[in-house]
Amino acid sequence: MTKTVDTNSPRKPLEGLRVLEMGQLLAGPFASVLLAWFGAEVIKIEPPVEGDPLRTWRSLYKGTSLWWYILGRNKKSVTVNLRTPEGQSIVRRLVDKVDVVLENFKPGTMEKWGLGYEELKKINPRIIMARVSGWGQDGPYSAKPGFASVAEAVGGLRFVTGYPDGPPVRPNLSLGDTLAGLHAALGILVAVYHRDVVGSGVGQVVDVALYESVFNVMEGIVPDFDKLGIVRQREGNRLSGIVPTGTWRCSDDKYVVIGGNGDSIFRRLMLAIGRPDLADDPTLERNSGRVQHAELIDDAISAWTRQHSLQEVINTLEKAEVPVGPIYSVSEMIEDPHFIARGLFETHTLPDGTTVKLPALAPKLTETPGKTQWIGPELGAHNAEILGTLLGISGEELRRLVQQGVVGSTRSTADVS
């Protein structure tokens, strides 16, 4: 769908792609923020009063989640009550003016509102509808509630995470949501390519399930089980079938991660830690042999790291060209010169005039890099622009919709004429 482009500024790679985001919290919004980072125009529909719950999740600064400024960046906030017929009518009008609809409601919700794919493609046959849910749009589990925590469990990630003698554990992140967002962004771009570059001219549904997004990164567990009966187990800090790679304690009670599993790397590692006997042992020359003697190798590395500080370990192994590194918290990331040199932190101004660091997004493109144009906006900040200018709703009509609770009130409402 053709949009007006500012020819005075460098063209962003996704400029001209207009996305209507209807969803909340993490998976859908993460997908759309990746698109917005690279220049897509993302119109985010939020409930008129409370907005996206993410606005008040986790760490708050003056009533607003700092996380919101990340996931809301470059998006245009429009407040519409999707549970009202007039709110649904506004969405239908927007569908005619966008390329992609992204939603992450429970399957059936959009159909209940008269906003399912079959209805939307009658309005805009080119529409691409990305649907993110816990279990997918069909199948016996599709109607179940789906959260990332459950998706990580059913998708296999939790089963292999933790120590053999302990319960499955979770990362202190909503990893399933992030993985689903990445899959949704990929699916959208594939569908756009097929429609606009290949030239089919038709839209389609991108069906993303949280548990499948997790399952998609589970490596070779299926053929391993199917052909060999192997069920991958929890290994703590080890990696099944790959030796040596893991985490070891140093003399200063800090931990180091070492990846010595390449054949030539293993030899350099053993020489660096003073174990030429293991470096020259023909039974350990290949990974298949090392797997049979994982305890021996781990004990040798552990005996060495416990005699040296973290920095001594890093210095020695880096000199030997063995992959090695500390375990960073955010406090170390903020100070790390490589993070800084790679431009992973941006400083932006909050509504109260103070500044905050936000993370940049990946990947990096040399000719058309992504950019933060603005941080997560105030609720309904773009009502006038989208409802008034794009849809042509008059100021009088917009004020009526505000009074009836169909859309939310914003400072910019009065600017619509």
Model description:
The chain is of the alpha/beta class. It has two domains: 18-217 and 356-381, Crotonobetainyl-coa:carnitine coa-transferase, domain 1 (Rossmann fold, 3-Layer(aba) Sandwich), CATH 3.40.50; 245-249 and 255-326, formyl-coa transferase, domain 3 (2-Layer Sandwich), CATH 3.30.1540.10. Helices cover 37% and strands 14% of the residues. It has 18 helices and 13 strands. The strands form four sheets. The chain has a six-stranded parallel beta sheet with strand order 5-2-1-6-7-8, sandwiched between helices. The protein has a three-stranded antiparallel beta sheet with strand order 9-10-11, covered by helices on one side. Strands 3-4 form a two-stranded antiparallel ribbon. Helix 1 (27-37) links the parallel strand 1 (18-22) and strand 2 (41-46). The radius of gyration is 26 Å and the shape is elongated. Mean pLDDT is 94; it is low at 1-7 and 412-417.
Q: What's the tally of helices? A: 18
Class by SSE composition = alpha/beta
Strand content: 5-15%
Low-confidence stretches: 1-7, 412-417
Q: Tally of extended strands?
A: 13
Helix content: 25-40%
Distance between the termini: 26 Å
Strand order of the largest sheet: 5-2-1-6-7-8
Count of discrete domains: 2
Defining traits:
18 helices, disordered C terminus, 14% strand, disordered N terminus, six-stranded parallel β-sheet, 2 domains, 417 residues, formyl-coa transferase, domain 3, three-stranded antiparallel β-sheet, alpha/beta, Rossmann fold
Give a summary of the structure in a few sentences.
The protein contains 18 helices and 13 strands. It is α/β, with parallel strands linked by helices and 417 residues long.
